[in-house]
Structure formats: C-alpha cells, structure tokens
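Figure 6 in text form: structure in, sequence out.
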C-alpha cells in the first residue's frame, strides 16, 4: 500500500523537522512492506529540510502537485502559462500584493523581513531570491497580503487557476489549473494502486477524495467531510498520529510490497 503524508500540520509542526517518533513510525510503515510518499504545499526545496534524510530519495510531491521529485531529482514540473502569469501579476500589482513566488528552485519574495513565512523559506540556503522576470517558469504563488485580499481572491477565482485560502495564516495559495496533489499521484500511476493519506487542510481535499482511507489532523471543516478518521488537536497530538500510522500500517500489511 502507498502511504501519502502531508507535512505542515500533519507530521511536522511549527516549521520544525519531523520528530524522531514520527520518523520511527514511518520506517515501521516501510518495514511492513508499504511505500511512503510525501505531498506538500512546500516546493521541493523547502520540503527537504523538514524530511528526515533517510526519506530524501523517496517520491516527493511539492507545490501542491506542481512538482514531483524522485531520488532527489525533479522529474515533473507544471507551471502557469504566459497568459495566466501575465493576468496574475497584473492583479498582484493592482492590489499592491506581497507574495512568495516559486519556480522549480529559486523564488521571488517581496514581503516584509519579519513575516513568519521566512521561517520556512529555504532554510538550507540552496536557492536565490531573484527578480520575477528571471524565472523560466512559475509553479506556485503564495499571496501574503493585499490592499483588499478578498477582492483579489474573487478576481483570481474567475480565472482558470486553483486557489486555496488558508484561514489560519490568512494567505492565498495559487497553483496552475487542474494541478493538485491527487493529479500528481495520477500522473505517477499511484492512484490506481490505492493509497492511505494523512492531511490537514483544504489543499488535501482532492487527495482525500481518491484515498482508500483518509486521516485528518485537526478540524478543517471542508476536509472533515472526506475523512474516514479524525485526530483532533490535543496535548498528545503526535502520539495519536503515531498510533494511527502504526494501526493502519499493520491493518494493510497484506497489501502490495514495494522495494
């Protein structure tokens, strides 16, 4: 069986790398013959620092499905087309937005130097903050602020792009049309094999829809509808997550093994 894990708010917290307890639980999943995959809103660049090095060669789905890496090499990249990008950047200028814009590796950031997003941005210092025009392609846009964020969201929703509003951070997350974590699994042929998923936010909804079993961390109202099991945030949250990982790994141990 494939086990697919979101990162932030699911198995990583407060921007910190996954704990040793989580790492051990994921290794146990592999010992049971399953395959571990990670799928995050983070680009690959920012996934690696929070994932234990023993998993760096695994399949990593980044940018909400815009990027796929395997054996530490980006093997798939989906980007906005020139027309979409022109319209979006026009809206960003119109609404005086601050943003983090990602290409395959480098990025463009024009927000304040004390914004919390910087805690998770390129912690390994392997990328560069470059002018927007220097990117060959853009795979994801995170809007941090605007003079009217709701009006900007409404205009973006009229475009043929994927828009997620993350209420806890009050940011807009934009990806190319038809791109999400689930479409990345479909492209890789993994959805047909079946998968278990752990997630916590709106950008996991499509992934939950296609899962054989879906575990929600926290209390996202829209995601809850598609969850088979919910782990509410408590003082012992991580121990409950580890317990559920181990339970499902053993339950599905008869499924296909992966080398």
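Output sequence:
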């Amino acid at each position: 069986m494939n086990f697919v894990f979101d990162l932030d708010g699911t198995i990583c917290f407060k921007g910190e790398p996954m704990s040793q307890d989580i790492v051990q639980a994921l290794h146990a999943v592999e010992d049971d013959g399953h395959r571990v995959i990670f799928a995050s809103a983070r680009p690959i660049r920012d996934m690696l620092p929070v994932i234990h090095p023993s998993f760096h060669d695994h399949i990593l789905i980044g940018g909400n499905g815009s990027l796929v890496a395997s054996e530490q090499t980006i093997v798939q990249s989906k980007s906005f087309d020139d027309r979409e990008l022109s319209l979006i950047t026009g809206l960003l200028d119109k609404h005086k937005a601050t943003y983090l814009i990602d290409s395959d590796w480098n990025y463009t950031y024009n927000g304040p130097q004390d914004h919390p997003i910087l805690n998770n941005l390129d912690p390994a210092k392997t990328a560069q903050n470059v002018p927007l025009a220097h990117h060959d392609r853009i795979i994801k846009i995170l809007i941090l602020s605007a003079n009217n964020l709701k009006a900007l969201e409404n205009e973006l929703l009229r475009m043929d792009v994927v828009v997620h509003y993350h209420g806890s951070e009050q940011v807009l997350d934009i990806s190319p049309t038809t791109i999400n974590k689930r479409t990345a699994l479909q492209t890789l042929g993994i959805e047909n094999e079946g998968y278990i998923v752990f997630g916590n936010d709106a950008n996991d909804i499509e992934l939950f829809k296609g899962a054989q079993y879906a575990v929600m961390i926290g209390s996202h109202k829209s995601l809850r509808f598609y969850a088979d099991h919910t782990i509410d945030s408590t003082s012992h949250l991580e121990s409950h997550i580890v317990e559920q990982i181990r339970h499902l790994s053993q339950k599905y141990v008869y499924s296909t093994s992966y080398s």
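Caption detail: The CA atoms of residues 24 and 122 lie 25 Å apart.
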